[in-house]
Amino acid sequence: GIIFSNNEPWLQVRRFSLSTLRNFGMGKRSIEERIQEESDYLLEEINKTKGTPFDPTYMLSCAVSNVICSVVFGKRYDYKDKKFLALMKNTNNIFEMTNSHWGQLYQMFSKILDYLPGPQHNIFAEIDALKAFVAEEVKLHQASLDPNSPQDFIDCFLSKMQEEKDHPNSSFHMKNLITCTFDLFFAGTETTSTTVRYGLLLLLKYPKIQ
């Protein structure tokens, strides 16, 4: 993947990922269209609350996640979609576990805790579930791939795999595709939605600014 890789394989995949994401609008004005479209869906969900108090965490995560999905998977999901709901739950559980006392202990003493029972092992089941979702999306993309007209990040990575299939040490293979897609989706969703949530919290705290 990108997050836990290093040296030359990391450089290759990072360079490719940045270039591909830019082609699909990241860092450009064209990404605004995807964000504007998703903000309409978000406002629609907020309006359903009819002014009653609500926790925006889930809605914001869905909105941000869908912008990433549109670039990585080439589509957005309805906020009530069962697969999407499971995906968001996995993401939330991983972050909760990572930030728990057990999660932090595991990061420091993983070699010891690997052999001891405890909730630290649950995180791997959640990560596997998220990667299984990505793997399913990759299969669908393989079936409909047109190398001359890539529609999203996965299509571009699959095309790059084809180009480098005769290079035995290539960083572009199926395992890396699934891990890179997981990294982009996972790292982008929580960070951005948390930032937006804190922005809303500050607006509530300072009504004059609001």
Task: Summarize the structure in words.
This protein has a single domain, classed as Cytochrome p450 (Orthogonal Bundle). It has 9 helices and no strands. The chain has helices spanning 7-23, 31-47, 57-72, 82-99, 101-108, 110-113, 122-144, 153-163, 174-205. Helix 4 (82-99) packs across helix 5, helix 4 packs antiparallel against helix 7 and helix 7 packs across helix 9 (174-205). The longest helix has 32 residues, at 174-205. The chain starts with 6 loop residues before the first helix and ends in a 5-residue tail after the last helix. It holds the Pfam family p450. Its cofactor is heme.
First-residue to last-residue Cα separation: 40 Å
Order of helices and strands: HHHHHHHHH
Give me the Rg, rounded.
Answer: 19 Å
Q: In CATH's first tier, which class applies?
A: Mainly Alpha
Looking at CATH, which topology would you report? Cytochrome p450
Largest sheet: none
- Helix share, percent: 55-70%
Q: What's the structural blueprint in terms of helices and strands?
A:
Blueprint: H1 7-23, H2 31-47, H3 57-72, H4 82-99, H5 101-108, H6 110-113, H7 122-144, H8 153-163, H9 174-205
